[in-house]
Design brief:
By secondary structure, the protein is an all-alpha fold. It is built from six helices and no strands.
């Protein structure tokens, strides 16, 4: 069964609604049932009412994510100043909320290179008994 709301039908619905056509007239023009048209018009009205709230929530979410990233990169700088190895600091910054792109920008490298550095820290060989790093031969 084809989906009733293709992009073409959506455009026609908007055009018919803008022309002040009644839902039964729109349904007949689109070849749908009246209840389908009414439900779609209600859905569109709800989205329109909530559009600003949704946009505001998305802006707030993005702002919080950027703040987490800045804080994580700042913590990475401090940890490296205190002597933490670079790859470990990179992995910790990523775990704290910084993106690979933000970390890479700090070091002047690509996001892929920053990711590879974080992976190198996580995948180094560890002893099964103690969980400590094995000495390299």
């Amino acid at each position: 069964m084809p989906r009733p709301w293709s992009e073409q039908r959506k455009r026609r619905l908007l055009a018919l609604q803008a022309a002040c056509r009644r839902p039964d007239e729109i349904a007949q023009a689109l070849g749908l049932r009246r209840d389908q048209v009414v439900a779609r018009l209600k859905l569109m009205a709800a989205w329109e009412r909530n559009r600003e709230n949704f946009a505001k929530a998305m802006r707030k979410r993005a702002q919080a994510r950027r703040a987490r990233g800045r804080k994580a990169v700042g913590g990475m700088k401090k940890a490296m100043a205190k002597g933490m190895p670079r790859n470990r600091a990179i992995a910790n910054a990523y775990d704290a909320g910084a993106t690979w792109r933000e970390i890479g920008q700090h070091f002047g490298i690509t996001a892929e290179a920053a990711s590879a550095a974080g992976r190198r820290f996580r995948t180094r060989k560890r002893s099964k008994k103690t969980g400590k790093r094995r000495p390299s031969a």
